[in-house]
Amino acid sequence: MNYPLHGQKQGNYLTPANSYYSDEYTQRRYDLYLADEVARDEAGKVRKFYRLHAKHDHTQEMAFAYDIKCPKCNGRLKQVGRQLSSNVLGLYSCPACNRR
User: Fold this and answer.
1) What are the strands, taking DSSP E only, across the chain?
2) For 53-94, how does the pLDDT look when each residue is reduced to its tens digit (9 = 90+)?
3) Residues with Cβ < 8 Å from 13, sequence gap 6 or more?
């Protein structure tokens, strides 16, 4: 699932919206969005993560500037993985959802 991100008027705080758009449509339509990614964590458990994607190129400094709400619980996501390219940015996890 993809989550288009909408900014707030103050700062770089981004709020995700649920969507059932295809990856291609979301990539063309939105400047920033999260995509679900499933991977094993350091303990070997399969967990859900979110990968930040950008339409326009981002440096590492630009990518670190965002604070993103969790699509599930509205908590704050924490970056747990590095940027893969200038458009495929950090991997995020929700500490609140992972405690459950």
Assistant:
1) 2-7, 13-16, 32-40, 46-54, 67-68, 78-81, 88-93
2) 999 999 888 888 889 999 999 899 999 989 999 999 999 999
3) 7, 66, 67, 68, 69
